[in-house]
Amino acid sequence: MELPDLDKLQADLLQTIENAPDLDALEAARVAALGRKGQLTQSMKSLGGLAPDDRKQAGQALNQAKERITQAIEARRTVLDAAALEEKLLTEAIDVTLPAAPRPDGRIHPVSQTMDECIAIFGEMGFTVAEGPDIEDDFHNFTALNIAEEHPARQMMDTFYLPERADGSRMVLRTHTSPVQIRTMKSQEPPIRIIAPGRTYRCDYDATHTPMFHQIEALVVDEVTHLGHLKGCIIDFLRAFFDIPDLPVRFRPSHFPFTEPSMEVDIGCSRKGAELHIGAGDDWLEIMGSGMVHPKVLEHGGIDPARYQGFAFGLGIDRIAMLKYGIPDLRTFFEADLRWLKHYGFVPLAVPSMTSGL
Ligand code: DAH
User: Fold this and answer.
1) Residue 227: pLDDT over 90
2) What angle do CA 317, 133, 175 make, to 5 degrees?
3) Is 80 exceeded by the pLDDT of residue 6?
4) In whole angstroms, what separates CA 22 from the centre of its chain?
5) Helix (H, G, I), strand (E, B), or coil: what is residue 289?
6) Is the pLDDT of residue 165 over 90?
7) Exposure winner among 47, 129, 152, 157, fewest CB in 10 A?
8) What residue owns the CA closest to ligand 1's atom 4?
9) Which of 30-34, 217-221, 260-264 has the lowest mean pLDDT?
């Protein structure tokens, strides 16, 4: 049997390999040369038909050719691999200078924002945050706060009562944050300086009342606490909160069962038609209740009124949020309307600072 012209065969195969335009063509060339039915493989098989001397020579030549072809395939593969990678990098390149696709970002609800602002201001004054349960017992919500059984405040507050328990008592949804005063006095020794922000509930619904709303309570108990401290603390808070350094603040005698004396606090404002301006003018706007803690309340909290005095105040968070941010209807706060939240909500990372004003 005749062997093909090995030099020509090798030259042809090398040319095909070197010209292979892509990895598929290269693989086809490899199979054509070295595959089971490839030209070099077939030639190897036909060596058996040669005389021993010729076989040896032809075998060596074929092995050399195989070696060269294998090397050429590897070399071409390296080149084609690099080109394929280059192509991929070009077509799949990421342009890091492109602006990021817009992502819908959340907003901080005005109630959360206002609560955080209050906590920041009182925090600077040395207050810590205290908490109590939303579902309260009669004692903490009323009795301990000196609100007697027949006291009109119980009706006034339009309380939500829970179903009667086995012992005949009924739990309530707390009508104010004042019960946290009692819980704090029972669990802490004076000096006490706490604020208690949280949810409160009353059966009421109009533009300025919702069945669930928010209050913040403040309680200070110490050996030398007096009305001057109460006034200074409230004035400082209101001026910081509304960011009006000379905000007029007025204390007006009032009555709460849990304080004696009691005062309502007004801030200066002006009204033109439906428009309300806080900070100046000849009108007043009631903003919170306050007073010196009633001795009976101190006693209910386990504190000796002969040794300690305290002051307390409470205000509506939603209400001051409406005033500060010009939100006309309280009911919209709790309707979970995303358009409303986008309009009145706060961008999460734009944190107000104490120095730049809140
Ligand atoms: N608890 C009162 C209310 O809900 C507000 C209040 C008034 C709280 C006077 C106080 C206070 O701590 O001293 O209307």
Assistant:
1) yes
2) 55
3) yes
4) 53
5) strand
6) yes
7) 152
8) 176
9) 30-34
Instruction: Check if 217 has its Cβ closer than 6 Å to any atom of ligand 1.
Output: yes
Measure CA 145 to chain center. Answer: 36
Mean of pLDDT values over 83-89: 90
CB atoms within 10 A of CB 273: 5
Strands (DSSP E) found in the chain: 128-129, 135-136, 172-173, 192-201, 212-222, 249-256, 259-272, 275-278, 283-293, 309-316
Q: Residue of the nearest CA to atom 8 in ligand 1? A: 314
pLDDT band with cut points at 50, 70 and 90 for residue 352: low
Choose the weakest-confidence range: 33-37, 131-135, 186-190, 250-254.
Answer: 33-37
> pTM score, two decimals?
0.71
Nearest CA, atom 12, ligand 1: 313
With bands split at pLDDT 50, 70 and 90, how would you rate the model's confidence at 277?
very high
Tally of CB atoms within 10 A around 283: 13
CA of 288 to the centre of ligand 1 (A): 7
Exposure string over 62-81, b if 16+ CB within 10 A, otherwise e:
beebbeebeebbeebbeebe
Residue 38, ligand 1, Cβ within 6 A:
no
Query: Residue for token digits 């939500």?
Result: 160
Gap from CA of 199 to ligand 1 centroid (Å): 14
Q: In testing the pocket of ligand 1, which one of 182, 201, 290 has its CB within 8 Å of the most ligand atoms?
A: 290
Q: How many helices (H) and strands (E) does the chain have?
A: 12, 10
pLDDT at 1: 46
Q: In Å, how far are 202, 331, 358 from 206, measured between CA atoms?
A: 12, 7, 29
CA 238 to chain CA mean position, Å: 27
Name residue 251's beta-bridge partners: 265
- pLDDT over 80 at 152, yes or no: no
112 CA distance to ligand 1 middle (Å): 21
Residue 196 has a pLDDT of 98
Atom 2, ligand 1: residue with shortest CA distance: 314
Instruction: Determine phi and psi for 138, rounding to 5 degrees.
Output: -55, -40
Residue-level length of the chain: 358
Q: Residue 256 in contact with residue 275, Cβ under 8 Å?
A: no
